[in-house]
Design goal:
Helix content is 43%, strand content 19%. It is an alpha+beta fold. The chain folds into three domains: 74 residues, Winged helix-like DNA-binding domain superfamily/Winged helix DNA-binding domain (Arc Repressor Mutant, subunit A), CATH 1.10.10; 151 residues, Beta-Lactamase (2-Layer Sandwich); 91 residues, 2-Layer Sandwich (Enolase-like, domain 1). α5 runs antiparallel to α6 and α8 runs antiparallel to α9. The longest helix is centred in the C-terminal third of the chain and has 19 residues. The chain is elongated and about 80 Å long. The two termini are 44 Å apart.
């Protein structure tokens, strides 16, 4: 909750966000006071809106006297005002039937198509994002007496690091023993859990050569994994239906990004803390192309293990309560549809 907002300011801000999401038009003080029974004058509403603008929650487009919410306003809205809308029973039934009816190998693709259809945004799905993989083994492959290649093996593939160089020569036998000692301590740990501090703690006294630890940390920290994941995208044209992106020049960076598999994988990466649903608003997205978008993603599971991520890309102006519920339900339904019969 934003501590600098009193009850009246919060109420007015919520009204402005809700009205703007529905109309895509800047909201003026007179519209707020006449459409909603606030029990205060239009002048009072105008003063409160001016204060909200000064506090960074509203901004005024050049061509209008009305105000629109800022990214900061949407973040406060999502964190402390969001009311998730229940997905209607008929829609839930239809979504489940659609996924179950698809051929098994096309279930994920169908999930993307369904999510794009029910949200009217671009939908993306990627099975097993790199940060959800678990480590199986670490190999130190000798290249010379003073050099070794660091290789991390996960349950989804093999990822090579750069060459680690040592001040003193190390025999292949010592490298093998060191590989086994480190592997015993990190086997089974999710890649996303191996932050720098946790990695130091996990490896512990097996870290006989700090250069090895540094290289493993670099692999984990930078996520430099060549993830051979098939990415499914649907509904890219929905971006152009949004008033914010009717100017093709403004939409082009987003459309281009959604065609690049490595970009989609990056924006789908689960957030910190293992939250099943993640909302990134505007500049919270690391990719420059997504700075005018909100990305809502949810992890789907198979046999209680993360199996991938599904989500939508749309403008920051959206019905967050409805979209969050739909994304979460699609993730749940996709996990169920992928379970063995």
């Amino acid at each position: 909750m934003a501590d600098d907002l009193d009850a009246r300011k919060r109420g007015i801000l919520k009204i402005i966000i809700d009205d703007y999401v529905l109309t895509a038009e800047p909201v003026g003080s007179e519209a707020v006071s006449t459409r909603h029974r606030l029990g205060v004058s239009s002048a009072t509403v105008r003063n409160e809106m001016a204060a909200l603008e000064e506090m960074g929650y509203l901004q005024q487009p050049h061509t209008s006297a009305g105000r629109v919410p800022t990214e900061h306003a949407y973040r406060v809205y999502v964190d402390s005002m969001l009311e998730q809308e229940q997905v209607p029973a008929a829609e839930r039934t239809q979504i489940r039937r659609t996924l179950v009816a698809a051929e098994h190998e096309r279930t994920i693709q169908q999930a993307a198509r369904t999510l794009a259809s029910v949200t009217n945004f671009a939908a993306v799905v990627a099975p097993v994002i790199g940060s959800e993989q678990s480590i199986r083994h670490l190999h130190l492959i000798p290249l010379s007496p003073n050099r070794a290649l660091v290789v991390v093996v996960t349950d989804e593939g093999v990822f090579e690091g750069k060459t680690a160089e040592f001040k003193e020569p190390i025999s292949p036998e010592d490298l093998d023993r060191l590989s086994q000692a480190i592997s015993r301590r990190i086997t089974g740990k999710p890649v996303r859990d191996l932050t720098e501090g946790k990695l130091d703690s996990a490896i512990g006294d097996a870290a006989l050569y700090q250069r090895v630890v540094t290289e493993v940390e670099r692999l984990v920290r930078d996520h430099r994994f060549d993830v051979s994941t098939r990415v499914y995208t649907d509904g890219r044209a929905n971006i152009l239906k949004q008033p914010e992106f009717q100017d093709v020049r403004r939409a082009q960076p987003v459309l281009s990004a959604l065609e690049q598999e490595e970009v989609v994988v990056e924006i789908l990466r689960p957030g910190a803390g293992g939250d099943r649903v993640r909302i990134a608003i505007g500049r919270e997205n690391l990719r420059e192309e997504m700075r005018e978008c909100s990305v809502i993603t949810a992890t789907y599971f198979q046999e209680d293990r993360p199996a991938g991520v599904i989500g939508i890309v749309g403008p920051t102006r959206m019905r967050y309560g409805k979209i969050v519920s739909l994304v979460a339900f699609l993730a749940e339904s996709l996990g169920e549809a992928l379970e063995p019969s």
